[in-house]
Amino acid sequence: MAKLLSIVLIIFIQNQATTSKKPHILFIVADDLGWNDIGFRNLDILTPTIDKLASQGVIFNSSYVLPVCSPSRSAFLSGYYPFKTGFQHFVLGAYQNVCLPLDLTLLPQQMKKAGYATHAVGKWHLGFCNWNCTPTYRGFDSYLGYYNAATDHYTHKLVNYYDMHDNEKPAWKYYGQYAGYFFTDRSLEIIRSHDTDIPLFLYLPFQNVHEPIQVPEEYADLYPHVGNYGRKHFSGMVSFLDESIKNITYALRDKNMLNDTLILFTADNGAELLYYGNNYPLRGGKHTLWEGGTRATAFMTGYGLQHTGIHYDGLIHAVDWMPTLIGAAGAEQGRLIFHVQSIPGIDGINQWDSIRMNQPSKRTEFIYNLDDFFIPSQGQAAIRDGDWKLILGYPGLYDGWYKPMNDTKDTPLYDFIYTPGDKPARLFNIKDDPNEYNDVSKEQPEIVQKLTAKISEYRKSMVPALYPKSDPEANTVARRNGGVWTPGWC
């Protein structure tokens, strides 16, 4: 009996050691990648690496983000709904003297507390007017990337100023080089030089596939059957992204890190329809509260997952990724959150156990977005409660179901006409009608009333959007620093 107890104790200790191990974490964000812009949903798109990784892990059928970039990234890294941090309104402009509030503790800062080495490569877009707003002041040990949104992939310029930075210094040596190449190379350098005794958190918010639509011709040439020039080159940008991820996973394998790495891949919003992305058969696209703007292509694969090769239907929101990755790491914020559902105060829910063991999602409700500041390219208010989705007022820029522009030069129309306020109300059962064809608000007035009341309650915690006018001081600082977008003007 004593011998048996000893064996049981040894097994228990071994299991505890296994489950307490901190995995390496690779968090990949694809910029403007649509629901239908990936090989495992669209055979016209060549993404063999992504398809393989996804098939070996957990593909999320109901993972939601915000309609545009800055709000989603703020949710990823803070765990808060953007309407509570002032990031609910469109995206940050280059001349706006704001950033994600400095009193927030971001995901990389939490990872550093847990003993992780933290690195970021790619797009920031959470504000840079003050050095304290920038990545290396917000928890990252190193950063190579750009602060703004739609910089040129080769010149790395936006509005005539250069925007590529290696930590706090302008990275002029990359002028003229395709960003995807040196972003991949920097990722490989980080992995190859990493001390494997230390857990690694690598945040890779890629520039692809955001416009401008640019890619080396060899990747566009993979699509001889696509007649539309824009869609052809957009598709090449997706395949370039796939090759970058292949090279990064190979580097992890060669370093004997891959089996100890958890990979999260997600888009930041739906496809930008005017720049050849596609969300079919979902309705709408980027800039809208329709499913095509907010239901993201996403999957998780690698270390710690117990049920793989599956599709997961449970609800997940962008705010959940921060506590979920911290949960996967077994990290702390004040107290251990590996054993609790959420970090006190944030909106995100730790979904790690639900995902890794294929259990029901701990989330039944979320806000798509709340905004009270009009701009004609983004919706105002929407909520999900179980299978029900309510949209109040203006849903966003595009209203339709658009197929890939493979053989046409047509572009989507601005189909929706803005109407102020919360009318009309549109109600959909997303389980029965995932593509939002049938508005049942007139048939279900009680549901409309219930969800409208919930939105009203959420609005009580909404803060004003951080959306000031352009600050000319940004120009002054950029010119003073040799034509480089530089912090120091707020």
Automatic annotation (TrEMBL):
- Cleavable signal peptide: 1-20
A molecular function annotated in GO for this UniProt entry is:
metal ion binding
SUPFAM superfamilies tied to this protein: Alkaline phosphatase-like
UniProt keyword annotations, A-Z: Calcium, Glycoprotein, Hydrolase, Metal-binding, Signal
Q: Which cofactor does it need?
A: Ca(2+)
InterPro entries in the record: Alkaline_phosphatase_core_sf (IPR017850), ARSB (IPR047115), Sulfatase_CS (IPR024607), Sulfatase_N (IPR000917)
Instruction: List each copy of the Sulfatase N-terminal domain by range.
Output: 23-331
Cross-referenced Gene3D superfamilies: 3.30.1120.10, Alkaline Phosphatase, subunit A (3.40.720.10)
Source organism, top-level taxon: Eukaryota
Q: Which Pfam families does the record associate with it? A: Sulfatase
Similarity annotation? Belongs to the sulfatase family.
Which named protein is this?
Sulfatase N-terminal domain-containing protein
- Which species? Lottia gigantea
